[in-house]
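# nightly structure sweep
# worker-07 picked up a monomer target from the shared queue
# config: single-sequence mode, recycle default, output format = structure tokens
# input follows
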Amino acid sequence: MMDFISNNSSAISAGANVIMVIVWITYLQLMLNGIIRQRRSSLIVSSSLKSDAAARCFISNMSEGSFHIQNLTARIRKDDEDLLSDITEPAADNHERSFQIPLAHGEALELGSFEELLERFAVAHGKIDTSDTDRENPLEFTVTIVGIHGPSRKPVAARRRFGLYRDRGTLRARGLTRETEQFRWGPRRRRIVSANQVIN
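# output follows
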């Protein structure tokens, strides 16, 4: 055994060095993944699934760390026209219902019913008629969040599209996109943030 080691010491040393390099690369990769995960915002916009009540909208912060909501906007596409409105603040002058708040990791915020969100939207654009909608022909309603994740100074965004429709007089919602889109970096982030950010 000792003769084998002595005769192949160079090869064994080279193999040990290769193994050490692999271990360090794996360790650094794990560290890098951890750092990226900590800096990556992850917000989920969802609607309630109850069939016996009006649809309600929720935001969940699944980021590693807190997320501070700066702006919440709604975009409606109706009659081939795009209408955008900031819905961060309530329709009435009542800051108890402002959405400009921080969310801790794993915390969820109930925005209220989509009916209430339409009331906020109506401040800028007037009442939106949903009486002629149904499941196959819904009103396209996009919720976009702009905010700051953790210690970062750079705003990021997330958005999801819903279809709103009347079902026996009750306003329902169904997701038109399966997942919430995340805008964390690059030109798309800058464009989405710029289009939906309001200076408060």
